Amino acid sequence: MLAEADQSTRAALAGKILVVDDEQRILRFVVRGLRAEGYAVDSADNGVDGLHKALEGRYDLVILDLLMPGLHGASVLRQLVAERPAQAVLILSCLTTTATKVGCLEAGAEDYLAKPFSLDELLARVRARLRSAAGRTSTTLVAGRLWLDLIRRVADSGSGPVPLAEREFMLLRELMQNRGRTVSKQRLLAAVWKYHFDPGSNVVDVYVRRLRAKLGADTITTMRGEGYRIATS
């Protein structure tokens, strides 16, 4: 039991990866190779299941085939990037034309590796992509389909980048840093406006409405009598 726990911990630290490929031989080969390197790996053998898992789960990297039944990999890529702009995607495909590669990279993929491929090269690219993702994480926050750039102070809920005023940015940052938890009005007043008491103002409500108007009505949930919570799906 302890050995299994240690293995799970190492996998979590190494990174969590989703592999989507309809070729069972390649799927098993890639999954086995990644797990041997200590990664936590999930898999799907068609585009529909792959997109569902990618949107429902949390992955440091998605490795995606293009030619698949049900839903083409290019469609999976477009929908995934639209919902989660910060998601790192590596395309692994037998299609080798420059137009296909350029199209995928412009659609949001971070890398493209053509089949047939060597496991060593794939692992090297995976490590590079995870390093890149780790660098981005320090300057971005992600909660479900919502993405916040801490440097440019813009947010994206799937419809394109939206610039934020200073207080809007600070309020959204506080909520996203506590995603999955309810943040009280008192805490928001202290973090954003530096009030350590309730001045009897509705300023928090006003700014929550502004963020909802910019990013979608379902972006922030009001927990009556408790505070606010950022949507995580």
Q: Can you summarize this structure?
A:
The chain contains nine helices and eleven strands. Helix 7 crosses helix 9.
Largest sheet strand order = 2-1-3-4-5
Task: Please count the helical segments.
Answer: 9
Q: Give the strand tally.
A: 11
Proportion in β-strands:
15-25%
Q: Give the C-alpha Rg.
A: 20 Å
Which word captures the global form? elongated
What features would you highlight for this structure?
9 helices, single chain, alpha/beta, disordered N terminus, about 230 residues, 5-stranded parallel sheet
Describe this structure in words.
The chain has 233 residues and is α/β, with parallel strands linked by helices. 47% of the residues lie in helices and 19% in strands. The chain contains 9 helices and 11 strands. It has helices at 2-14, 24-36, 47-56, 73-83, 98-107, 119-137, 166-177, 185-193, 203-215, and strands spanning 16-20, 40-44, 61-64, 89-93, 111-114, 140-143, 146-149, 154-156, 162-163, 220-223, 227-230. A 5-stranded parallel beta sheet has the order 2-1-3-4-5, sandwiched between helices. Strand 4 (89-93), helix 5 and strand 5 (111-114) form a beta-alpha-beta unit. Helix 3 (47-56) packs parallel to helix 4 (73-83) and helix 7 (166-177) crosses helix 9 (203-215). It starts with a helix and ends with a strand. The model is unreliable at 1-13 (pLDDT under 50).
